[in-house]
Amino acid sequence: MSEIEKRQAAACALEEVRSGMRIGLGTGSTARHFVDLLGERVANGFECLCVPTSETTADQAAALNIPLTDLETIDRLDITIDGADEIGPGLSLIKGGGGALLREKIVAAASDRMVVIADSSKVVEALGRFPLPVEVNRFGLGATRRSLELVLVEHQAQGALNLRLNSAGNPFVTDGGHLILDALFGRISAPEALSQALLNIPGVVQHGLFLGLCKRAYVASPDGVRTLND
Known about the structure:
The protein has 230 residues and is α/β, with parallel strands linked by helices. The chain folds into two domains: 3-124 and 211-222, 3-Layer(aba) Sandwich (Rossmann fold); 132-207, 2-Layer Sandwich (Alpha-Beta Plaits). The chain is built from six helices and 13 strands. The strands form three sheets. Strands 2-1-3-6-12-13 form a six-stranded mixed β-sheet, with helices on both faces. Strands 8-9-7-10 form a four-stranded antiparallel β-sheet, with helices on one face. A hairpin with a 5-residue loop joins strand 4 and strand 5 (93-94). Helix 1 packs across helix 2 (29-43). Catalyzes the reversible conversion of ribose-5-phosphate to ribulose 5-phosphate. It catalyses: aldehydo-D-ribose 5-phosphate = D-ribulose 5-phosphate. It is an enzyme of class 5 (isomerase). Substrate binds at residues 27-30, 82-85, 95-98, 122. Pathway: Carbohydrate degradation; pentose phosphate pathway; D-ribose 5-phosphate from D-ribulose 5-phosphate (non-oxidative stage): step 1/1.
């Protein structure tokens, strides 16, 4: 997806927001365009109050003088605009490729609406081609991993379970201080059942299946931007 297409999708999502709204700000390369465009509006007098889904997004928004708050100060958001790694049937999503899935899900769940911006390659017939990120506690990692491997077998995963590493080859650490195990399923035939199975593992903090949260997606391609609704 070209940066031009990403910006086009972000511009469509920008039309969803109104002055005075409380907005969740997503994380990732496409969401970054939305934050930039919102910053331009704020510079021209647009009023909003925003909750970022990562420290990276928080830094970007602060540099653009976008007013920020948190979910201790306010209890609900009007809308969250975020990206996705996969968009499946019913606007089910896989998110977390950037490592911010826990905060992204907290913010999305605290919003009246979640709107996704993505490119057409992210739209799939069934979730699972993109590795599913599972955020886990550092303590008991071996036990948690063994339990996850049993879930992969039960759900007929076609690939392995890998500890995510950073560019230096060390374990990737989330903003919350957790680790991420990426599970390659190939095809997830029962996402709701998988979601519950993962959350039943004590060491799992959260996972990247976003089910029943997204209400609309703006999907960009060289032919333009199309809208998907739930």
